[in-house]
UniProtKB/TrEMBL annotation:
Name of a matching Pfam family: ABC2_membrane_2
PANTHER family in the cross-refs: ABC TRANSPORTER PERMEASE
Name used for this protein in its record: ABC-2 family transporter protein
Transmembrane parts of this sequence: 27-47, 107-132, 152-180, 192-215, 221-239, 306-324
Keywords in alphabetical order: Membrane, Transmembrane, Transmembrane helix
């Protein structure tokens, strides 16, 4: 029974060491700098448009262009775009076909769905991929393994530490951009905070693969490129599944369909993670949905809860294999 207090202390020490490592390598400050840069971008927004209004259930998410505002159109009650968004404190501007609240929500969807959920997660995987290989070098880990601490606790502590570090950075990113956007536009979209757990889950799933590669190879290069290639594979499989479900390829066989289904349900689903945030923000009311996801929803083949669950199961399996390999690794 004494191994469990030792394991808990080991996990806590590894979490603390991960944050210390992030500061020592300047990674903490680099990610914080990107957050502040995005916050400055949000603070530079100016939206000149009509305020929020009641929305008809059958209303289309776009308006007519501003130049088509004729007496006949006005008489019919058709809404015509007459607003604009300025960026960079007035350096750039573009017309919008939405009201003020919808224009701000579109920007938030892009920030969380593209900048953070895709670019941000990939950069986090890239920058943290070296944490485990560096730690697993014999000169670094043998000092810890010489003490009575279970190896699984060492690996789990490092993994949890990196995930908590990314969770902190995700919270600061969402919080800073939310505050800056709200202060600049007066639109405070609380649903935007849903992005935090989705970003953390998405990163945690793929970092489990990075941990497995690190344990098996002890190579930062393999961990970086292997994880990025695996992310591309998962995204392509996720996209292909929804694409074939809505638009079957002529000549495809039953075996091909079974293979795609097996790959989809086995592998993580980064595209579906973005779809969950899109739905949480009710973005279909003011932005064009992803055609493949929209088609999957129409056919009943899109199950967000199962997408999250199966992705987490895959991550748990990858960590279990990594723990087994680490346990039997010679130093």
């Amino acid at each position: 029974m004494t191994q469990y207090p030792d394991a808990i202390r080991t996990v806590r020490w590894m979490v603390r060491d991960t944050f210390r490592q992030s500061v020592a390598t300047k990674l903490f400050w680099a990610m914080l700098g990107l957050t502040l840069l995005c916050a400055a971008f949000c603070f530079s927004l100016t939206v000149e448009a009509a305020t929020e209004r009641p929305r008809h259930p059958a209303e289309l998410p776009t308006y007519l262009p501003k130049g088509e505002k004729t007496p006949e159109v006005v008489a019919e009650g058709v809404r015509v775009a007459d607003g604009k968004v300025t960026l960079g404190f007035g350096l750039f501007e573009y017309p919008i076909t939405k009201n003020k609240s919808d224009a701000v929500r579109v920007i938030l969807v892009w920030l969380a769905g593209i900048v953070a959920d895709t670019v941000g997660v990939l950069l986090a995987l890239l920058w943290t991929a070296g944490f485990l290989p560096t730690f697993l070098e014999p000169a670094a880990v043998t000092v810890l393994l010489a003490k009575p601490a279970p190896r699984w606790a060492v690996l789990a502590g490092k993994y949890i530490g990196v995930v908590l570090f990314v969770a902190l950075q995700s919270t600061m990113f969402v919080g800073a951009t939310w505050l800056a956007t709200g202060a600049a536009t007066g639109v405070w979209e609380g649903t935007y905070w849903v992005a935090v757990p989705l970003l953390v889950v998405n990163f945690a799933v793929f970092y489990a693969v990075s941990a497995l590669l690190a344990v098996c190879t002890r190579s930062t290069v393999v961990s970086v490129f292997g994880t990025l290639l695996f992310w591309l594979l998962c995204w392509a499989m996720n996209f292909t599944h929804h694409k074939l479900a809505s638009d079957p390829v002529p000549g495809s066989t039953r075996a091909a369909s079974v293979l795609v289904q097996a790959g989809y349900w086995t592998l993580p689903k980064p595209l579906d993670m973005g779809g969950i945030f899109f739905d949480a923000m009710k973005a279909e009311e003011y932005a064009s949905p992803i055609p493949e996801l929209a088609a999957a929803k129409a056919r009943g083949t899109y199950h967000p809860e199962m997408a999250v669950l199966t992705s987490l199961v895959f991550a748990a399996a990858a960590l279990a294999v990594a723990g087994y390999e680490f346990r039997h690794m010679d130093y």
